[in-house]
Amino acid sequence: MVARLVEVDAGWSSQEGGLDCVVEVDAGWSSQEGGLDCVVEVDAGWSSQEGGLDCVVEVDAGWSSQEGGLDCVVEVDAGWSSQEGGLDCVVEVDAGWSSQEGGLNCVVEVDAGWSSQEGGLDCVVEVDAGWSSQEGGLDCVVEVDAGWSSQEGGLDCVVEVDAGWSSQEGGLDCVVEVDAGWSSQEGGLDCVVEVDAGWSSQEGGLDCVVEVDAGWSSQEGGLDCVVEVDAGWSSQEGGLDCVVEVDAG
Questions:
Q1: Which of 40, 169, 219, 233 maximizes the CB count within 10 A of its CB?
Q2: 178 within 8 A of 212, measured Cβ to Cβ
Q3: What is the average pLDDT value for the chain, to the nearest integer?
Q4: Positive/negative CA dihedral, 66, 25, 109, 213
Q5: Angstrom distance (rounded) from CA 44 to CA 11
Q6: Measured between alpha carbons, how far is 63 from 68 in angstroms, rounded to an integer?
């Protein structure tokens, strides 16, 4: 059994200066007959009153196993705030692996929240979790929670989730959930929420739940919202159980 804990905590603050931060974690390994237990956690938080922030947080955790088992948790928590400055944040998580005879248990969670009173926010949160299994089983949960608010500033948010996989003889259990909510009193909102969950199975079975909850309100500002859900799959001998729910209020 191999147990690894990789943790990065990068925090700082600046009143009048500027920050330029890159935090990158690459944790990859493989095992033929053993087992892997991996926890990768990145906590990058800072604040600035009059300065500016430029932050890139990237996590790449990939591995493979022929006869063993994988247990992986990848968590990214990137939160900060600014009163008069500006924020530019990119949070990207790529967690992919494969197994021939073993089993996969993967949880990928991204929580990116911040607020600004007079500044502006530009946020991109992208999660790509794909894998395949011939004889094993997959259990995948991908959750994205991106919420923020602004009183006088403006918001530009893109939240994209692409979770696709295939199985010949195994079974798939997939939950993809996106919760993107915010509010603005005097500012403006521009939001795009897109979910593409597609897969196929020849002899197995599919159980898929895709849920999108995009709600916001505005008193004096304007709203421009696009919510798109594309959930398609096919099965020759198996069965499909799919729930697609969209709540945009």
A1: 40
A2: yes
A3: 58
A4: negative
A5: 6
A6: 12
Instruction: State pTM to two decimals.
Output: 0.60
Distance CA 53, CA 81 (A): 10
Binned at pLDDT 50, 70 and 90, residue 198 comes out as low
Tell me if 135 sits within 8 A of 101, measured CB to CB: yes
Query: Exposed, middle or buried, 242 (CB in 10 Å: 0-12/13-18/19+)?
Result: middle
Task: Count the Cβ atoms, other than its own, within 10 Å of residue 157.
Answer: 20
How many Cβ atoms sit within 10 Å of the Cβ of residue 166? 19
* Listed residue (55, 174, 179) closest to 121, CA to CA: 55
More confident site: 5 or 111: 111
Q: DSSP alpha helices (H): ranges in the chain? A: none
Name the residue among 168, 38, 148, 146 with its Cα closest to residue 99.
168
Which tokens belong to 74?
């990848």
Kindly provide the b/e burial profile for residues 33-64, where b requires at least 16 CB atoms within 10 angstroms of the residue's own CB. eeebebbbbbbbbbbbeebbbebbbbbbbbbb
